[in-house]
Amino acid sequence: MINKIKETADYLIQKGFETPEIGIVLGTGLGKLINEIEIIHEVEYSNIPHFPEATVEFHKGKLVYGNFGGKKVVVMQGRFHLYEGYNLQEITYPIRVLEKLGIKTLLMSNAAGAVNLNFKKGELMLIDDHINLQGGSPLAFKGVEQLGERFVDMYQPYNVEINKKLEVIASKNNLNLHKGVYASVIGPQLETRAEYRMIKILGADAVGMSTVPEIIVANQLKLKAVAITVLTDECDPDNLKPINIPEIIELAGKAEPNMITLFKELITEL
């Protein structure tokens, strides 16, 4: 894998992806941040050596390099998931490439369902901690110690200092930013009523199908990582309604400007 990571990074450097400071991963329905970036270079995932390809219709599948908030950033417009048939090493491969390019900070976003019924759809949640319900680890493979520590400490997987900055920015802009625990499941099916009850009992405030593998690898690579969830539906097992995917994408789009504000002001401060 080391040789593949180097080959991918070398290709991107040749394409002009030079010394980005910050990596950004955009989740489901969260692509408008690209419009705020002064784009210098962009490459389709399908053209990047050893890179997976996005198969979800609302994930663009493009790597973008440019200026944002006064910093050089590299943005993943679309991520990868277990439910697409990729394994945990493939899902997290791009994070290793971004670190090889030089990023020190990783900002992530996702769309998820609110299990905490005090949280409402269309609101944002700052992830303070997570529960891995994906049945595996992106570090559980032979030779992982060549890429970093095998036994990665996860006592503070989300950078406390940056999270505090985001809370201050949210308060200053009168944005309602919850803080909570994110549970990550495999998907792609949505949860049953019983599963929502279980996830709530476990202590999660929101549930989705991504982010946790990337955060684990980010911690192995000593990156400062944070993640913001856009809550796109309310998961009340006693009043569960049929899922409405178009509404979820629409809600993600409506909440995205607030997330962009948080990320942009944060980046100017980093």
Automatic annotation (TrEMBL):
<feature type="domain" description="Nucleoside phosphorylase">
    <location>
        <begin position="22"/>
        <end position="267"/>
    </location>
</feature>
<keyword id="KW-0328">Glycosyltransferase</keyword>
<dbReference type="InterPro" id="IPR035994">
    <property type="entry name" value="Nucleoside_phosphorylase_sf"/>
</dbReference>
<dbReference type="GO" id="GO:0004731">
    <property type="term" value="F:purine-nucleoside phosphorylase activity"/>
</dbReference>
<comment type="function">
    <text>The purine nucleoside phosphorylases catalyze the phosphorolytic breakdown of the N-glycosidic bond in the beta-(deoxy)ribonucleoside molecules, with the formation of the corresponding free purine bases and pentose-1-phosphate.</text>
</comment>
<keyword id="KW-0808">Transferase</keyword>
<dbReference type="InterPro" id="IPR011268">
    <property type="entry name" value="Purine_phosphorylase"/>
</dbReference>
<dbReference type="GO" id="GO:0009116">
    <property type="term" value="P:nucleoside metabolic process"/>
</dbReference>
<protein>
    <recommendedName>
        <fullName>Purine nucleoside phosphorylase</fullName>
        <ecNumber>2.4.2.1</ecNumber>
    </recommendedName>
</protein>
<dbReference type="InterPro" id="IPR000845">
    <property type="entry name" value="Nucleoside_phosphorylase_d"/>
</dbReference>
<comment type="pathway">
    <text>Purine metabolism; purine nucleoside salvage.</text>
</comment>
<dbReference type="GO" id="GO:0005737">
    <property type="term" value="C:cytoplasm"/>
</dbReference>
<comment type="similarity">
    <text>Belongs to the PNP/MTAP phosphorylase family.</text>
</comment>
<dbReference type="Pfam" id="PF01048">
    <property type="entry name" value="PNP_UDP_1"/>
</dbReference>
